[in-house]
C-alpha cells in the first residue's frame, strides 16, 4: 500500500520558498508540497518544465544555472522583486555522472562541483544576505545524500559535493545562529527519473542493501523538507536528517 502524504494546511502560509532544481524529482515534489502548505514558490532550474509546474502551482519560474554566480544572484533579486522577501532557500540542484574517476573528465568535475559546491555556497550567500536585510530570520535547506557519509562506486565527483554540503550546513548554522537555521536532508536512493542514469546492476545492489526494501519517494523527502523549514523544527540547525530506509544503520 502506498503511503499518503498529508500537507499541513497553512503551515507555510505566505512564506517565500525558493527551490533550486525544482522542475522534477525531489525539487518538483518539494515545490508541490510547499505550495500545498500555503507558500509562495519560486522554482529555479535550467529545465523549462519548471515553467509549467510554476504555472500549475501559482508560483514563478526563474531559469537558473546554479553553476553561474551571476544567475544565482539574479534568482535572489528576482525573488525579492516578485515576492518582497526570501524566507526559505532550498539548495537542491545537482549534476552527476556514473564513471570511475579515471574516466571522469575535468569538465565533468567542474560542472558537478560548480553546481553542488559553488552553487550551494552562492545560493546560501545570497539567501543569507537577503534574510539579514529583512530582519535576520530564515531557513537554509540543503539536499545532501547518504553518499555524504558512505562511499558508492562511480560517483567520486558527486560524493565530493555531498560531503561538502554537510560542512557548509554546519558552518552556516554557526555563523548565523540563532536567527538563520541551516539543515541538510540526506536521502538514500530516490525513485525519480535520475535513477535511469544509473546502471541497473548498481540500483539492484543498492536496493538489496536497504532494509526498508524500496527506494524513497520524492514526496517523502518533500514532507521532511516542509517540517524542517517550519517553526515546529525551530531548534533544529547545523545537522543532517537522514532518510534512507535504515540503509546506514547496517554499518
TrEMBL record:
Query: Which top-level group of life is the source organism from?
Result: Bacteria
- InterPro entries associated with the record: NAD(P)-bd_dom_sf, SDR_DHRS6-like, SDR_fam
Gene3D superfamilies cross-referenced by the UniProt entry = NAD(P)-binding Rossmann-like Domain (3.40.50.720)
Q: Which UniProt keywords apply?
A: Oxidoreductase
Record bears the keyword Iron: no
> What Pfam family is a match for this entry?
adh_short_C2
Among its keywords, does the record have Oxidoreductase? yes
Recorded GO molecular functions are: oxidoreductase activity
Cross-referenced SUPFAM superfamilies? NAD(P)-binding Rossmann-fold domains
Name the family.
Belongs to the short-chain dehydrogenases/reductases (SDR) family.
UniProt-recorded name of the protein: SDR family oxidoreductase
Q: What is the lineage of its organism?
A: Bacteria, Pseudomonadati, Pseudomonadota, Alphaproteobacteria, Rhodobacterales
